[in-house]
Backbone:
């Protein structure tokens, strides 16, 4: 027997390669499903059997040499399909049931169907002549990307579902009449919760407080972070490295640890129950990240640009405001966005520093809508949606700033 | 008056490195002076000191007779073309060109209509009219280069500084811009200080060349003088392609000896005495009957020219052959063969250092 050609040594049909990966993933997902099933109804055996079939099918995938593997794998696959259909028949057939069964049935179906394809069957039967292998490699090159795309989108859909299901739920609760958390999606529609929230005085007070605090934090924080970042980027001074590190160090403590010292300071200064108090605290908290981000961006602005500006007659301030800052707008915008969001969403400090309803920010206000008894879930959900709207708008708005590569093409070499 | 004078100018960096060591150099009004040297020789330091981008440690720099040591860069009346061009990426070409003019104040203030006129003039001179409303990143490398030159020129600088302005261009464009730069200089007659490590740029552009090494001035002369009468072996080896042949040895009684290699000195060097370098340019080194025997190591054929690599007594030299008239190719002696080489051209030099 002659040595197998290079192509024959490398050729494995795309279907087999895909099955090797997908069956393994299916085993893992079915393990997860098994765990969920145990929590739901305590039934273990259908999932366990399914996992066993998938795992054995994966192990008996043809390797191009052992002839017995193909029929065994197909038999296991057929068993998996039958088990899946039976499990579906005895289940209440909710969306979840269909999904979990699909993770057993689809891989098993693919196993049966793909192994029956003539080319795969030939390969499994040990065919390894050169022409067959070379054609197969060419075919793989075409079909592999398609299979990859399918797998990728499947994974993305699962990711999307994880993200979007809570949102759908919240929206459903917000537009459902009464105070129910369950019920089918989209079974009724009402805007009563939105009306209730928007017509209450408290909500507008909280919104005003949140806006003042978030905007104040952004402006005050930037006013500190921009010059600090520039100084760290451009000037050499004693303690430069140490203070950069200290900035990071502050960031490493969990918020709850500095909560008490902050409270004492605020109390001493008489800043409890004021917006200014929150603005100062938030700015300080957001400062390290802002300074580091801006320093990183200023570092990328070439020094030659500043030197050119100096020769064009600019003083230090003009160099900064006319050349460096316009080029750094994307970084400034992102820093501003982060400061705003941090202040807008912060809960713990706002809760501790503010004791009167008049000074509540939105997160604290929302939390106060959950009293010990008689939760108003509908109002709460509606308010949550309204509160997140500004954040969404800001993100959409600042996305452009993110992408702009203003500095591209300015300096070569 | 826009002559420039370095007076015992010294620059020592914080870490103790000497960037520039007692430089005495005068650039006459309207002169095109090229500062030439290998990297780290102090040429860029000299330029940055003159521009005011770095502080002088010792000595003085005068522009038009006035000491500028402590003047801010913008007040020195300079235009500078950066190696990276350093165009403001967020401004259009028009804004880039006018930026400096719009920064003028007080008695130097350039009125707005004058700004527009000067920008238009620069744009037409540099063929940038169609690019005026574009951003730098939309321009080709050559156009960016011209914007950088235009930005330096619109301010009508007393002195124009250029820091390796051609090094980012491809070879073809570089040759064309070199010619353009010389033409611009002849049109405007602006005193120019040009920094480069490229000796061809130096030879073709300069009225005079100043060659630096390790922060010290080696020679300050007209290009051809520096080429024909280099002050020392460093200058000799730096100017010219291929570089001058330098053989280290000892001269005595009209004879030069370098180990196994020995030959009679030409008559004009008969007085040379002591250790030193015997220098002869490859184009004056001929393979011809009656010469010193060398072994041929190899030949590089360049088309119209060929470079012969020759060895004797451990010393490698080059001989340049140029096509004359109808001669099509260089002679093809076998590598390894013995070749007689005439080293005693009347242009040969002897360097003590």
Residues:
């Amino acid at each position: 027997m002659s040595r197998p050609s290079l192509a024959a040594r490398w050729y494995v049909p795309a279907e087999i390669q895909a099955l090797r990966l997908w069956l393994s993933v299916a085993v893992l997902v079915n393990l997860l499903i098994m765990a969920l099933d145990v929590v739901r109804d305590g039934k273990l055996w259908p999932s366990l059997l399914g996992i066993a079939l998938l795992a054995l099918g994966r192990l008996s995938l043809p390797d191009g040499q052992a002839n017995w593997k193909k029929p065994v794998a197909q038999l296991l696959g057929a068993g998996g399909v039958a088990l899946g259909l039976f499990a579906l028949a005895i289940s209440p057939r909710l969306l979840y049931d269909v999904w979990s069964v699909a993770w057993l049935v689809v891989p098993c179906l693919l196993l049966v169907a793909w192994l029956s394809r003539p080319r795969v069957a030939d390969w499994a039967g040990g065919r390894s002549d050169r022409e067959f292998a070379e054609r197969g490699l060419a075919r793989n090159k075409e079909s592999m990307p398609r299979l990859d795309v399918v797998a990728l989108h499947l994974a993305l859909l699962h990711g999307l579902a994880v993200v979007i299901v809570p949102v759908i739920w919240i929206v459903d609760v917000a537009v459902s009449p009464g105070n129910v958390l369950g019920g089918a999606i989209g079974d009724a529609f009402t805007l009563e919760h939105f009306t209730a929230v928007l017509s209450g005085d408290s909500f507008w007070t909280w919104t005003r407080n949140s806006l003042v605090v978030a905007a104040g934090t952004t402006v005050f924080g930037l006013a500190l972070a921009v010059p600090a970042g520039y100084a760290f980027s451009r000037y050499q001074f004693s303690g430069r490295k140490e203070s950069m590190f200290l900035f990071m160090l502050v960031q490493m403590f969990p918020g709850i640890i500095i909560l008490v010292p902050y409270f004492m300071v605020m109390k001493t200064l008489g800043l409890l129950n004021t917006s200014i108090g929150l603005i100062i605290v938030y700015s300080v908290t957001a400062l390290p990240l802002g300074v580091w981000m801006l320093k990183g961006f200023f570092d990328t602005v070439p020094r030659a640009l500043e030197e050119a500006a100096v020769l064009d007659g600019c003083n230090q301030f003009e160099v900064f405001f006319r050349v460096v800052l316009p080029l750094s707008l994307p970084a400034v915008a992102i820093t501003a966005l982060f400061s705003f969001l941090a202040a807008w969403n912060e809960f713990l400090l706002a809760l501790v520093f503010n004791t009167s309803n008049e000074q509540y920010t939105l997160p604290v206000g929302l939390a106060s809508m959950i009293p010990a008894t008689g939760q108003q879930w509908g109002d709460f959900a509606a308010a949550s949606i309204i509160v997140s709207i500004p954040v969404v708008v800001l993100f959409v708005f600042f996305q452009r700033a993110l992408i702009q590569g203003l500095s591209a093409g300015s300096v070569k070499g | 008056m826009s002559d420039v004078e370095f007076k015992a100018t010294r620059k020592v960096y914080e870490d103790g490195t000497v960037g520039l060591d007692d430089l005495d150099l005068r650039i006459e009004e309207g002169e095109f002076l090229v500062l030439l040297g290998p990297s780290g020789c102090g040429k860029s330091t000299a330029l940055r000191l003159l521009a005011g981008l770095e502080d002088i440690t010792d000595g003085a720099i005068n522009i038009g007779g006035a000491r500028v040591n402590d003047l801010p860069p913008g007040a020195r009346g300079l235009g500078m073309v950066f190696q990276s061009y350093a165009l403001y990426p967020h401004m259009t070409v028009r804004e880039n060109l006018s930026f400096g003019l719009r920064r003028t104040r007080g008695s130097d203030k350039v009125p707005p209509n004058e700004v527009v006129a000067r920008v238009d003039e620069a744009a037409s001179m540099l063929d940038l009219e169609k690019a005026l409303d574009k951003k730098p990143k939309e321009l080709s490398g050559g156009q960016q280069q011209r914007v950088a030159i235009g930005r330096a020129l619109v301010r009508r600088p007393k002195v124009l500084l250029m820091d390796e302005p051609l090094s980012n261009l491809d070879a073809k464009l570089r040759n064309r811009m070199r010619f353009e730069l010389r033409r611009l200089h002849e049109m405007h007659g602006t005193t120019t200080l040009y920094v480069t490590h490229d000796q061809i740029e130096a030879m073709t552009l300069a009225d005079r060349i100043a060659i630096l090494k390790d922060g010290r001035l080696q020679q300050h002369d007209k290009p051809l003088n520096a080429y024909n009468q280099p002050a020392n072996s460093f200058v000799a080896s730096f100017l010219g392609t291929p570089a001058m042949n330098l053989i280290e040895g000892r001269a005595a009684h009209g004879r030069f000896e370098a180990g196994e290699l020995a030959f009679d000195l030409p008559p004009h060097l008969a007085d040379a005495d002591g250790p030193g370098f015997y220098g002869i340019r490859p184009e004056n080194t001929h393979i011809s009957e009656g010469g010193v025997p060398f072994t041929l190591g190899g030949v590089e054929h360049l088309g119209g020219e060929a470079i012969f690599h020759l060895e004797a007594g451990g010393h490698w030299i080059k001989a340049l052959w140029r096509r004359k008239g109808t001669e099509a190719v260089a002679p093809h002696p076998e590598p390894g063969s013995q070749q007689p080489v005439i080293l005693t051209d009347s242009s040969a030099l002897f360097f003590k250092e």
Observations:
- Chain A has two domains: 6-166, 193-408.
